[in-house]
From TrEMBL:
NCBIfam families: CDF (TIGR01297). Residues 224-293 form the Cation efflux protein cytoplasmic domain. SUPFAM superfamilies: Cation efflux protein cytoplasmic domain-like, Cation efflux protein transmembrane domain-like. GO terms for cellular component: membrane. This is Cation diffusion facilitator family transporter.
């Protein structure tokens, strides 16, 4: 997995979630808190999610085959989508069930000091993991907002870890609120309310992740800025008059397919056209290094007098 895949952030999240899951489950055994059980399952699901992201990065590095000539880069998108499904089915649905069960049959929180101690420890550990994810993401986020970064990022790992860690921190606050209210009021139903809030939060995050990774799985183009660079590189080649049309597609987070129809002069020889295409490909790779697969089709250009649109001859 490349640096853009956020390996350090994934490992930090995995270590934090494993430690937190054990601590939360121990606290649940002492307290019987529904919120603590929901948070335990949440942390176990998150640990599994980080393992899935690592697996996706490893499988995406496989060499291309005859059956998969463009490689396995989209494996990273597939496993990120699986993460969203796991987060919803295991994390959200279990938390919602536990919350409903606790409200229907409230039980007092026993030995609440265990719950408070573990929740504070978990907030510190998740904060460290979240800080690591923010630090790695900031290096590639640029001037975009965090919402824009999550929507525009082609490498799915960092957005997934960011949303998971953010959701974990908010979920811990919900759990702390539920346990605190249950202890203060003596009504165990508040513990169920905290679990329900965690379930709703996880469901929202899972839907956001599924929506974004679904778009990547279907196939997304390069950013407009990157396509502008490709057009400029093409039109800088002396044998290329202009770009008639351009199509791009991410084969993986760091691999781009470029297909373009380019206009050449009608009196160019085949050798001149071939040299022009070679030069255009060189310029594209120089301007956009992730453009690994390039197909250029030479054509003649004419302006459509009726519509003013550019078309191939």
């Amino acid at each position: 997995m490349s640096a853009g895949g956020g390996t350090k952030a994934i490992l930090a999240a995995l270590g934090a979630n494993l430690a937190i899951a054990v601590a939360k489950f121990v606290a649940f055994l002492f307290t019987g808190s529904s919120s603590m059980l929901a948070e335990s399952v949440h942390s176990v699901a998150d640990s599994g999610n980080q393992a899935l992201l690592m697996l996706g990065g490893k499988r995406a590095a496989k060499r291309s085959t005859r059956k998969h000539p463009f490689g396995y880069g989209r494996e990273r998108y597939f496993y990120a989508f699986v993460v969203a499904v796991v987060l919803f089915t295991i994390g959200a649905l279990f938390s919602l069930y536990e919350g409903w069960h606790k409200i229907a049959d409230p039980q007092p929180v026993e030995s609440p000091i265990w719950a408070f101690a573990v929740l504070i420890f978990a907030i510190v550990a998740e904060g460290f993991s979240f800080r690591t994810a923010i630090k790695e993401s900031s290096a590639i986020k640029g001037d975009h907002s965090w919402v824009a970064f999550i929507r525009r990022a082609k490498a799915p790992e960092l957005p997934v870890v960011l949303l998971e860690d953010f959701g974990a921190l908010i979920g811990l606050v919900f759990a702390l609120f539920g346990v605190t209210m249950a202890v203060v009021t003596g009504n165990g139903a508040w513990d169920g309310v905290g679990s329900l809030a965690i379930g709703v939060l996880l469901a929202v995050i899972a839907i956001i992740l599924a929506t974004e990774t679904k778009s990547l799985l279907i196939g997304e183009s390069a950013t407009p800025e990157m396509e502008d660079k490709i057009c400029a590189a093409l039109e800088a080649a002396p044998e290329v008059s202009r770009v008639i049309h351009l199509r791009t597609l991410h084969l993986g987070p760091e691999e781009l397919l470029v297909a373009a129809k380019i206009a050449v002069e009608h009196d160019d020889t085949a050798g001149e056209v071939a040299r022009g295409i070679d030069e255009a490909e060189r310029r594209i790779r120089e301007a956009v290094p992730m453009a690994r697969v390039i197909y250029l089709e030479p054509d003649l250009y004419r302006a459509d007098a009726a519509s003013g649109q550019r078309t191939g001859a």
